[in-house]
Amino acid sequence: MWLQSAINLSPRTKGFHLVTDDIVEKLPDLAKLKVGVAHFFIKHTSASITINENADPTVRMDMESHFNYYVPENQIYYQHDYEGPDDMPAHIKASLLGSSVSIPIHNGHLALGIWQGIYLGEHRYNATSRTIIVTLNGE
Amino acid sequence: MWLQSAINLSPRTKGFHLVTDDIVEKLPDLAKLKVGVAHFFIKHTSASITINENADPTVRMDMESHFNYYVPENQIYYQHDYEGPDDMPAHIKASLLGSSVSIPIHNGHLALGIWQGIYLGEHRYNATSRTIIVTLNGE
Amino acid sequence: MWLQSAINLSPRTKGFHLVTDDIVEKLPDLAKLKVGVAHFFIKHTSASITINENADPTVRMDMESHFNYYVPENQIYYQHDYEGPDDMPAHIKASLLGSSVSIPIHNGHLALGIWQGIYLGEHRYNATSRTIIVTLNGE
Question: Is B74 left (phi over 0), alpha (psi -120 to 50) or beta?
């Protein structure tokens, strides 16, 4: 069984955001699958999707601090800055963190670990909404 | 055909560990699939799974040195340190390296390159066993 | 439906290269799938595959500058340097960027965002051709 849909996430501030519930509530069909894989793909090159700790908001804040420190704005070697100082860092972060996550499906649920959640990495200051293509495959 | 199982990897020291054989020996059903994709998902946010060189142990040592250098402990901006100086670095490494790998299946085997193996990235000093959900899909 | 093939990419210079068209033109069967997931796996540990901006060549140049700066050659802690100063940095970049990408299939096409393309990260100075295993699964 294949189920594919587009989910729009409302605009977020620059940083990391826990979006597991925002996504799962739009996937009622997940309950139909006993076993499978759920694929989440973000259709943007200045935002990312990753899996990390779902409980303490300071983890998301520290992630943002770290990626800003190691992927700084205004590096002397940047040539691509059409859209401001956050432009090229956003592209680099997108590849470091990734454009998709795949999560096993088990008995109608995402088989995440107890501390795992899905993060949206929003790497632009003035972001619009972000589209995620969800493809569920299983039986 | 869908085959899903949980594999427990015994506790490892902090660092990168080649675990291809530990995993494949627990997947006798792999032989039944002519074509497909094998998905390996680690249910933890302070360990990671990645693919890298399978021959020289110094690659794993250099990986550990590099990730410790560029994801240091005790950064002034860390707020999340409940579980010690390795806590927040472990979360960052988990997202940099990733929580899953997908490998093509070809004629009953993982279609890895000749030099490729599966690495467990153990990012905590005192780790417990780690659980990997393996989902095989193919025909 | 499962379709698997090996694509050889001709040798590239060290850096990031947009290879979407090189790959898609070798996948005529993509048109047969209304919904699915396309999996691209590079069988090497000194090259990577990632998704990023498909329009401005300076993005690829800035990516190369950034990864060279933060994954430098000749770090004092490298032990693995059999094949020259680009040896260990290539392995680290392979794990940072990843060995595979998965892209949703929608109505016979890769459901990439308008600005997204597939990058080959070539991390060696003197590279040979690179093999990518493509596995298309869908209906």
Answer: left
Identify the three-state secondary structure at position A21.
helix
Pick from B56, B114, B138: which is nearest to C80 by CB?
B56
Euclidean distance between CA atoms B130 and B46, whole angstroms: 10
Q: Is B139 helix (H, G, I), strand (E, B) or coil?
A: coil
Instruction: Report the pLDDT averaged over residues B57-62.
Output: 98
Q: Which residues pair with B133 in a beta bridge?
A: B6, B41
* Residue closest to C54 by CA, chosen among C100, C88, C21: C21
What is the rounded distance in angstroms from the CA atom of residue C102 to the CA atom of residue B44?
22
**Nearest residue of C to residue B65 by CA position?**
C77
How far is Cα A51 from Cα A19, in angstroms, rounded to an integer?
A: 10
Q: Is the CB of residue A116 less than 8 Å from the CB of residue B45? A: yes
The conformation of residue A62, written as its DSSP 8-state character, comes to: H
CB of C65 within 8 Å of a chain A CB? The answer is yes
User: H or E segment at A69?
Assistant: helix A57-70
pLDDT digits (tens, 9 = 90+) for A33-89: 999 999 999 999 999 999 999 999 999 999 999 999 999 999 999 999 999 999 999
Mutate to test the interface with B, among C44, C80, C130, C131 (most CBs of B within 10 A): C80
Find the angle CA(C73)-CA(B122)-CA(C72) to the nearest 5 degrees: 10
Closest among B4, B41, B33, B45 to B118, alpha carbons compared = B41
User: Is the CB of C80 less than 8 angstroms away from the CB of B58?
Assistant: yes
Letter string b/e over residues C89-103, b meaning 16 or more CB atoms within 10 A of that residue's CB: bbbbbbbbbbbbbbb
Query: Residue C11 carries which DSSP code?
Result: P
**Are the C-beta atoms of residues B13 and B124 closer than 8 Å to each other?**
no
Q: Angle, to 10 degrees, between the axis of helix A87-97 and the axis of helix C87-97?
A: 90
| b/e sequence A82-115, b meaning 16+ C-beta within 10 Å | eeeebbbbbbbbbbbbbbbbbbbbbeeebbbbeb
Enumerate the residues of chain C whose CB falls inside 8 A of the CB of residue A135: 35-37, 104
Apex CA A48: angle with CA C93 and CA A9, to 5°?
170
- Dist. CA B104–CA C133, nearest whole Å: 7
Q: Distance between CA C93 and CA C47 in Å, rounded?
A: 8
Q: Tell me the ipTM for this assembly.
A: 0.98
Q: How many CB atoms lie within 10 A of CB C134?
A: 20
Of the candidates A60, A18, A41, B128, the one whose C-alpha atom is nearest the C-alpha of residue C116 is A41
